[in-house]
């Protein structure tokens, strides 16, 4: 069974500060992992994905995430927060080779303080 | 390249009614998945269609049903609406064998009164 836990439903950072959003996963096989962003009243936009290649994954808008198998984690980071980063962020997991449905965490709302 | 589109944008129904939501997949994609996102929650997988056949289903009752058409567009039908069905319904399209990457539409906001 697959699942995702996102620690911290709300995270606030100052503009220019480091962004760290946490995601831990559970999967019976080596997973595919994703981070999506959702702006108010919109659908989900893919930020980045891990599909068993390089463990450090770079995405759009300066975000990156590192797959750590020993810690079953896939935390999302950005060195310097921008006001436009304020949104809801979702971590998701799926299993390679099966039905490619995604299992999502409950999300983390990022607030950027000017 | 045309992205995933959904219609309608918003919908208001009353308890017991039936609703049909529509989704057009991104060009070149043959798989459509539907998700329900309740307020303040992450999306929950409803079901997936591949080549017009259901290819996986989440923990949703049979009153949630779907179709996929030869052009890979899809419908989600919900019968006997309940208040708890109020949510954002998201459609995602993908191409089989492409690392499970899914592209989401803007969603349909359903309100059940």
3D structure, described in words:
The complex is a heterodimer of chains A (114) and B (113). Chain A is mainly β. Chain A has strands at residues 3-5, 10-14, 19-21, 24-26, 32-38, 44-50, 56-58, 64-68, 73-78, 87-94, 103-104, 108-113. Chain A is globular. Chain A starts with a strand and ends with a strand. With 113 residues, chain B is mostly beta strands. Chain B is 0% helix and 50% strand. Chain B is built from no helices and 11 strands. In chain B, a hairpin with a 6-residue loop joins strand 4 and strand 5. Chain B is globular, with a radius of gyration of 13 Å.
Largest sheet of chain A: 6 strands, mixed
**Average pLDDT taken over every residue of chain A:** 92
Radius of gyration of chain A: 13 Å
Largest interface, Cβ cutoff 8 Å: A-B, 26 and 28 residues
Helical content of chain A (DSSP H or I, runs of 4+): under 10%
Distance between the termini of chain B: 38 Å
SSE order of chain B, one letter for each helix or strand: EEEEEEEEEEE
Helix and strand pattern of chain A: EEEEEEEEEEEE
Net shape of chain A = globular
Oligomerization: heterodimer
The value of Rg of chain B in angstroms is 13 Å
Number of alpha- plus pi-helical segments of chain B: 0
> Unreliable runs of chain A, pLDDT <50, ≥5 residues?
none
Structural class of chain A: mainly beta
Number of strands of chain B: 11
Largest sheet of chain B: 7 strands, mixed
What distinguishing features does this structure have?
heterodimer, A: about 110 residues, mainly beta, 6-stranded mixed sheet, 4-stranded antiparallel sheet, 12 strands, globular, B: about 110 residues, 7-stranded mixed sheet, 11 strands
Mind sketching the topology for me?
The complex is a heterodimer of chains A (114) and B (113).
Chain A: E1 3-5, E2 10-14, E3 19-21, E4 24-26, E5 32-38, E6 44-50, E7 56-58, E8 64-68, E9 73-78, E10 87-94, E11 103-104, E12 108-113
Chain B: E1 5-7, E2 10-13, E3 19-24, E4 31-37, E5 44-50, E6 53-57, E7 64-68, E8 74-78, E9 87-94, E10 103-104, E11 108-112
Parallel strand pairs in B: 2-11
Antiparallel strand pairs in B: 1-3, 3-8, 4-5, 4-9, 5-6, 7-8, 9-10, 9-11
């Amino acid at each position: 069974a697959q699942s995702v836990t996102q620690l911290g439903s709300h995270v606030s950072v100052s503009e220019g500060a480091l962004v760290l959003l946490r995601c831990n996963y559970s999967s019976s096989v080596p997973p595919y992992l994703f981070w999506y962003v959702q702006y108010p009243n919109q659908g989900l936009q893919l930020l980045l994905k891990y599909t068993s290649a390089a463990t450090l994954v770079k995405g759009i808008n300066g975000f990156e995430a590192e797959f750590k198998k020993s810690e079953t984690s896939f935390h999302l980071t950005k060195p310097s927060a921008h006001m436009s980063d304020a949104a809801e962020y979702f971590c998701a997991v799926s299993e390679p080779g099966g039905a490619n449905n995604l299992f999502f965490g409950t999300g983390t709302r990022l607030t950027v303080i000017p | 390249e045309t992205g995933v589109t959904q219609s309608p944008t918003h919908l208001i129904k009353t308890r017991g009614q039936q609703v049909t939501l529509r989704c057009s997949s991104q060009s070149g994609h043959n798989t459509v998945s539907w998700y329900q996102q309740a307020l303040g929650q992450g999306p929950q997988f409803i079901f997936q269609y591949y080549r017009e056949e259901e290819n996986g289903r989440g923990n949703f009752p049979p009153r949630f049903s779907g179709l996929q058409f030869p052009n890979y567009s899809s419908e989600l039908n919900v019968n006997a609406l309940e208040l708890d069905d109020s949510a954002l319904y998201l459609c995602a399209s993908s191409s089989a064998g492409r690392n499970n990457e899914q592209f989401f539409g803007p969603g349909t906001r359903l309100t059940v009164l």
